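Supplementary Methods S3. Complex input for the flavin-adenine dinucleotide-bound model.
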Amino acid sequence: MLDVLIIGAGPVGLACALEAQRKGLRVTIVEKGALVNSIIGYPTNMEFFSTPELLEIGGYPFPVSHYKPLREDALDYYQRVARSENIPLRLYERVLSLRGEQGNFTVTTDKGEIQTRNVIVATGFYDLPNPLDVPGEDLPHVKHYYKEPYEHVGQHVVVIGAKNSSAKAALQLTRAGAQVTLVVRGPEVSPSVKYWIRPDLVNRIAEGRITAHFNTCVTAITPEAVEVRTPDGPLTIPAQFVYALTGYHPDEALLGRLGVEPDPQDEARAPLFDPATHETTQPGVFVAGTVCGGRATSRWFIENGRHHAQLIAAHLAGHAVSLPR
Ligand SMILES: Cc1cc2nc3c(=O)[nH]c(=O)nc-3n(C[C@H](O)[C@H](O)[C@H](O)COP(=O)(O)OP(=O)(O)OC[C@H]3O[C@@H](n4cnc5c(N)ncnc54)[C@H](O)[C@@H]3O)c2cc1C
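Predicted complex, serialized as structure tokens:
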């Protein structure tokens, strides 16, 4: 019987595992994909917004030769930390549901069942894109994850959204030689776009290298075009590829099956939990990392979410009694 099973091997799930293990608890992480799966899905060579010391876990220094770490640096760092701490991992195994009570939970996965006294849910938000809810959204040339520009050179590409991910994708695609049109629901490039990215995009739009349509909604996607409604009427924008970078949300159905209740007072449907311990309304079930923000996916990130690990581990160490292995 484990003391604690952690669902999700992202930076915060790893932080939880190593803090709990250092307190003498018997832990395992179950991860439906690869180790740090979400970061594997980020764009090639993506630069983090945070400086490296703010992404560190377990006191391991994160040395990088430049100011901000790249995706590849972070992958290397978190995977090394997991190895150094000998964190038990069950990769490519998806958690489906939970039954039982604190001290005697059974977690069902797509490969079997695991007994544990406590569960930490650190499942993030990056697996479910926010849908546009328009016809054609499921066509194969419509993507919700941007990787790199090279397959789009010489192509018409429509990027939907005007936050950091869309801004960076639009700039990179343009510089690689794609003809980019940005479709934005609001009146401008989001003011929340980082201060070193926003002027670059605004200036490329001003000089006409990127066409942008503001106050514009997508009404349909066809194999050759994106249909939009602009303030001046309907418009057909040619598109061989479409990036709908309109954000992501946590798997609320999974959270329900794990007994994690949403806060009825919170528009973002964030889980109800005690901020001092991160324990949910179901004793023995904890939430950590970005999943704690519900649909407000920028409420918690690595910088602040990594600290959930110490809170939960300290609480568990006070409560859980580890039996001999
Ligand atoms: C493009 C981009 C750039 C970012 N830059 C920064 C930055 O500079 N600084 C910063 O602090 N934050 C940044 N963030 C946010 C940060 O990456 C996330 O906050 C971070 O990944 C959260 O870690 P986490 O461990 O909570 O969740 P995740 O890293 O998302 O990990 C969740 C894990 O749970 C797994 N999982 C989900 N469901 C199941 C299941 N049913 N069974 C088993 N496993 C499951 C997933 O596969 C995943 O590996 C960025 C995010 C994005 C998208």
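The CA atoms of residues 86 and 282 lie 29 Å apart. The mean pLDDT is 96.
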